[in-house]
Specification:
The protein is globular and about 80 Å long. It has 25 helices and no strands. Helix 21 (354-368) packs parallel to helix 23 (398-418). The longest helix has 23 residues, at 372-394. The protein has one domain (2-466). It has helices spanning 2-16, 20-39, 43-54, 58-75, 78-90, 94-111, 116-129, 135-144, 156-161, 167-170, 187-206, 217-220, 223-227, 234-240, 248-253, 256-277, 283-298, 301-311, 316-334, 337-346, 354-368, 372-394, 398-418, 431-434, 446-466.
Length: 469
């Protein structure tokens, strides 16, 4: 039953979903029209807001690019290849591939959303090596596995709420920080995360197409890659570029001593950071950790340079599309459209209904602003002000109000991850890995992830409506 549903939506999405860049442009037009209708924004004011936001995510875009390329550089290192060889020997059926990729992806996502790159490498290798695997569904497993990411250790909204002097405190919307005991490590969030870990792999296995509709990795290769020989390893390429006879340049390029010294300096900082701040992970720390691990795994400077060069070949989508989504965020933020939409959805809400309504708000706004931090910047103050108003009308105590704000904030976080499954933007984070050398596009997987999104409504609703903080 679920297999037929997955195949049905997969076929429909392939026919209606355009390239992710076209999707971003269409969303820009839709957002502009909504700003005119809902908040009476003037056309040139919309264009000004669009441009004002256009460059606002450059730093974040660079962090995203580094997450991608540094993670990919690790993935093509000798230790990673040995691990994949070992795992491939254990996983030898299509069902096992779908289940293992999704299960490991959920674990990676709960550590850091940037680790979707590692899940993509795992999916690519297993999908390539195991016969009878539908490669489009494997890619869908990779994407679906990030559904619980915003309840994980890199969740931008809960981490921001626990940050002293965050923008909500400075704006006097919040009087104090909200501890992670009410968000990331709350009973609600832990149970929701466990539900995804258990049931999401089962769902993705049940989505497998019938044998006559399976499209394997070899079927999706483009003509050039079908005809090409196997690419040489990073080490082989580095060795092939050495000059004949002893020389200083090759000695420096291939020095393990230089790599050991710089890696030790990086490890020294990381040990100091985690020993003094606990398991404090943000994008900068994650990128630095990936760089240090990559240098250690590749052993010499020149091998790491080659690995990073290969990894950088697939970042064009992020470079192109990030400014356009930042422009959409600018329209939502500077015209007042984002707050207007949130207040409209929050009208007539109650303490019991507002957490679920917040999930819907988070999911809706995420389609236009597929960035947790960017979305929270647009609607965060409105959501908390609504919580304060609803809490006052219900007579909540200060502690109850804080817990209510935490629940609704996590609902926005869940909504942000929820509708990623129909928003192709974040496929840019892993398609350079899993789709390299193939004809696969985002539209090939979105039907499967749409079904995953629908089913994900169940654990999110269970957590937000029935589970205690």
């Amino acid at each position: 039953m679920l297999s037929k549903i997955g195949t049905f939506f997969a076929d429909k999405f392939r026919k209606i979903l355009p390239d992710s860049f076209i999707f971003a442009i269409l969303l820009t037009f839709i957002t502009a029209i909504m700003a005119i209708i809902i908040v009476d924004a003037k056309p040139f004011g919309i264009v000004q807001s669009w441009y004002k936001g256009f460059w606002s995510l450059l730093a974040f875009a660079m962090q995203m690019i580094l997450i991608l390329v540094t993670g990919y550089a690790i993935a093509i290192s000798p230790p990673a290849e040995k691990f994949l060889d070992w795992l491939a020997a254990k996983v030898n059926t299509p069902n096992a591939v779908y289940g293992v990729v999704t299960f490991m992806g959920v674990i990676f996502a709960l550590i850091s959303w940037g680790w979707i790159v590692l899940t993509a490498v795992l999916g690519r290798e297993l999908g390539r090596r195991v016969k009878g695997v539908d490669y489009r569904l494997v890619a869908a497993c990779v994407y679906a596995s990030i559904l619980p990411w915003h309840g994980g250790l890199s969740g931008s909204i809960p981490l921001m709420l626990n940050t002293p002097e965050n923008f909500l405190i400075k704006a006097k919307v919040l009087s104090t920080t909200i501890p992670t005991s009410l968000t990331l490590i709350s009973t609600m969030n832990i149970v929701v995360s466990i539900l995804f870990l258990i049931f999401l792999p089962i769902v993705m296995i049940l989505l497998k197409p019938s044998a006559d509709k399976v499209v394997e990795y070899s079927d999706m290769l483009d003509a050039d890659h079908k005809a090409s020989a196997k690419q040489m390893s990073v080490k082989e390429e580095a060795d092939s570029l050495k000059l004949s006879g002893p020389n200083l340049s090759d000695g420096l390029n291939n020095s393990t001593i230089i790599m050991i010294l710089i890696s030790l300096a990086g490890l020294w900082f990381l040990v100091s950071h985690f020993s003094s701040k606990g398991f404090d992970i943000n994008l900068d720390i994650m990128n630095f950790l990936f760089i240090v691990i990559g240098m250690i795994f590749h052993k010499t400077p020149f091998r790491y340079v080659i690995a990073m060069k290969r990894a950088c070949s697939g970042v064009s989508g992020i470079v192109l599309q990030f400014p356009f989504y930042a422009g959409i965020m600018g329209i939502m933020m500077f015209t007042g459209l984002g707050k207007a939409l949130a207040m409209w959805m929050a009208s007539n809400a109650t303490v019991d209904s507002f957490p679920f309504i917040s999930l819907i708000i988070g999911g809706f706004v995420n389609i236009f602003i597929p960035s947790g931090g960017g979305e929270w910047a647009v609607v965060g103050s409105t959501i908390i002000q609504a919580c304060n108003n609803i809490g006052a009308a219900a007579g909540l105590t200060p502690d109850q109000l804080t817990a209510f704000i935490a629940r609704c904030s996590m609902a926005i976080a869940y909504g942000d991850a929820w509708t990623n499954m129909i928003q192709p933007f974040w496929t840019l984070a892993f398609f350079p890995v899993i789709a390299a050398g193939t004809k696969m596009q985002a539209r090939d997987i979105m039907g499967y992830t749409f079904v995953a999104m629908c089913i994900a409504t169940i654990p999110y609703t269970i957590g937000l409506v029935w589970l205690p903080i």
